[in-house]
Amino acid sequence: MNTSITTFGTLKASGYISKSIKTELRDNLIVSIQEGKNTFHGMHGYEDTVIPQLERAILSKHNINLLGLRGQGKTRIARLMINLLDEYIPFVSGSEMNDDPFHPISRYARDLMEEKGDETPITWLHRSERFFEKLATPDVTIADLIGDIDPIKASNLKLSYADERVIHFGMIPRANRCLFVINELPDLQARIQVALFNILEEGDVQIRGFKLRLPLDLQFVFTANPEDYTNRGSIVTPLKDRIGSQILTHYSADIQTAKKITKQESEKLDDRLCKVHVPELARDILEQIAFEARQSEYIDHKSGVSARMSITAFENLISTAERRALMNKENVTAVRFSDLMGMIPSITGKVELVYEGEQEGTSFVANHLIGEATKTLFLNYFPKIEKLKKQDQSTPYDEVIQWFFDADSFELIDESNEETYVKALLSVEPLVILLNKYQPNVATADVPFLMEFVLWSLVEFKKLSKHRTAGGTAFNDSFDSYIKGL
To answer: Is the pLDDT higher at 88 or at 236?
Structure first.
């Protein structure tokens, strides 16, 4: 399209065809599907579930309600829909409603076009400016969304309150020919939801006695959390009836998909002052923590566990290793298993606890989740640790456990440099033998993490004990604390 066109007459002569926003979205989606393009780039795990439903809704020209727990990418999906809009559309210059010159709806645009005809000035609107978003909160008013009478405008223009030009339009009329997203729809007061009825169906706008026929051209996308239906509010039934498609979102079904999302959304490591190596097992444990949280008896399942927890936890994990490297003046470091403790502030702030969890405390729950994730993934790397064994029956871990029984003490200091840390782990010879036997092909850079992973796992399975010291973590045999107590 030729964005250098500046008058209505020239626009008509160019053969430009005006479309509604829903037709625009539909036509561009059809082209995208035919060309095999990924319309919703970056929405991992939704390829076979949410995205097909969303595309069917767009092809049907429906207003859409995205229903799902927090942190499932609902708002992100809505924002990606602007990629299906035409790059530029023309509107009557000076119009506050982005009036289509072929179908003007505002008093201003109609009067201007009647006066100037084909010489009516035209401006071009980029698709990036065609996205409006409003968070539904209890204090949102009809004036905010639809409009109200403006006495100052009436005074300045010397107009009677009976003149429609005294109306100051709200966000929805100003979003004409745009995507309009209302987040957390159930939080919107019922009387405000009722005000949306006619806009969705008939295009009528009623403001303090004025009944204006404004056939607004809008694509509505609503987002809602099922928790809101019981805890704070609900979507009134007639409004739900006017929303064409309700699409259920969900969390990642597997760790690999969750890792893609975390990697995509996390801060890039390029701006770190040192290089931080992250073993793949550390990434797996981080994501497994979220999976454990969604099944935990301590956490409110109705509230959900946002993907933001994994993202911020990963950033904290990297920062824990980076801080240690800076203290030791090292340019290269690797994430340690004990660095997972640095993620606890990211976990505690993003989970809603039930009564049992509140009794135990957020710190306990966070540590419990890390422990459960550790036990779950341990079996992917090493043989199962039996709770009980028969007399004279040997296990792969006997030598490691015996080493700690014979040793006076073994401590890993949190802020020790890489050389000291690795040297301490390699001093546990049975641990080195165990790793060489069951994980012979592990990358050299990942060896220390995997060795420490074994120690923490033995603690979780009650084969070793550990306790926090002033500067680190001390590991002992499982009877150590009992003997000391005696």
So the answer is: 88
Find all residues with CB under 8 Å of 330, minimum gap 6, and list them: 274, 417, 418
Which pLDDT tens digit goes with each residue over 286-315? 999 999 999 999 998 888 888 899 999 999
CA pair distance 58, 132, nearest whole angstrom? 18
76 three-class SS: helix
Whole-angstrom distance, CA of residue 298 vs CA of residue 358: 8
Radius of gyration of the chain (CA): 30
Q: Would you say 443 and 389 are in contact if contact means Cβ atoms under 8 Å apart? A: no
Q: Which DSSP string do the residues of 154-172 spell out, in sequence order?
A: HHHHT--TTSGGGEEE-HH
Set out the domains of the chain in order of their start, with CATH numbers: 8-248 (3.40.50.300), 252-380 (1.10.8), 387-486 (1.10.10)
Q: pTM for the whole thing?
A: 0.85
Residues 1-38 pLDDT 10s: 678 899 999 999 999 999 999 999 999 999 999 999 98
Q: Give 3-state DSSP helix, strand, coil % of the chain, rounded to 5.
A: 50, 15, 35
Sign of CA pseudo-dihedral 266, 267, 269, 270: positive
Q: What is the DSSP letter of 267?
A: P
